[in-house]
Amino acid sequence: MSALMLDGKALAVSREAMLKASVEELVAAGANQPVLATILVGDDPSSATYVQMKINACGRVGMGSRSIHLGSDTTTEELLATIDGLNNDPDVHGILLQHPVPSQIDERACFDAIAIEKDVDGVTTQGFGRMAMEEPAYGSATPAGIMTLLQHYDIELEGKHAVVVGRSPILGKPMAAMLLNANATVTICHSRTQNLEALIGQADILVGAVGKPELIKAEWIKDGAVVVDAGYHAGGIGDIEKDGLESRAAALTPVPGGVGPMTINALISQTLESAKASHNQ
């Protein structure tokens, strides 16, 4: 067996071509250029890199971007005021608050202050609830990107046992809800899970979203599993150890080049959808 490589980078490139055409069509119809506003709080270099990657992606598809950089001493109240201003700006169609924010800020309160129609990163409590209930909402960008990747490669989900390792509110939990909505049987594992190795060994679909380098060992994963690694750590390694998986797994995401590009693609795709909805009001 040779694992099918789930190439998120290649898929993102092809989808960007379609997004660019859609943006041009929307603007030609008289709509304003779709605009994504990004908010970076503090001076974390990794966060700055991620924000710039999202801005670059907007440029490639002909979308506008507005970059807001706030100091590391920013208060919750100041950040909330910034978000409120963007909520009320008709020229902004999507708002991204880069995670994480400095510790003195109530991140959840700030996420939830984003208007639901501009929550293109899928971080609000309301958006999560609507998505989980299969109501219209923008999904959390990383899980939404993963679902697009699995769909593109015709990965069967219905009736499969999906194991998600990680329960963060913007990755693990929405990932589990999306898989459940796709008729998979879902197990969520986390730091208090007992017999983690045994549970991972049952997975037909495995999603590593725990944020710890190579916590999930290759030997735990059964032959023929679909392995999705949502982690990225220094040295180009993910949350899942890959030794030998290329000859045992049915499908596998590379790190880098698997999930990451699809996260950004989902974000800009959902910003375009928000712009379309605004134009059609």
TrEMBL record:
Alphabetized PROSITE patterns for the sequence: THF_DHG_CYH_2
Annotated NADP(+) binding sites: 166-168
InterPro entries: Aminoacid_DH-like_N_sf, NAD(P)-bd_dom_sf, THF_DH/CycHdrlase, THF_DH/CycHdrlase_cat_dom, THF_DH/CycHdrlase_CS, THF_DH/CycHdrlase_NAD-bd_dom
GO biological process, alphabetically ordered: L-histidine biosynthetic process; methionine biosynthetic process; purine nucleotide biosynthetic process; tetrahydrofolate interconversion
Pathway the protein takes part in: One-carbon metabolism; tetrahydrofolate interconversion
Catalyzed reaction equations: (6R)-5,10-methylene-5,6,7,8-tetrahydrofolate + NADP(+) = (6R)-5,10-methenyltetrahydrofolate + NADPH; (6R)-5,10-methenyltetrahydrofolate + H2O = (6R)-10-formyltetrahydrofolate + H(+)
GO cellular component: cytosol
EC number: 1.5.1.5, 3.5.4.9
A Pfam family that the UniProt record links to this protein: THF_DHG_CYH
Gene3D superfamilies: Leucine Dehydrogenase, chain A, domain 1 (3.40.50.10860), NAD(P)-binding Rossmann-like Domain (3.40.50.720)
GO molecular function, one term: methenyltetrahydrofolate cyclohydrolase activity
Similarity-based family: Belongs to the tetrahydrofolate dehydrogenase/cyclohydrolase family.
Stated name of the protein: Bifunctional protein FolD
Originating gene: folD
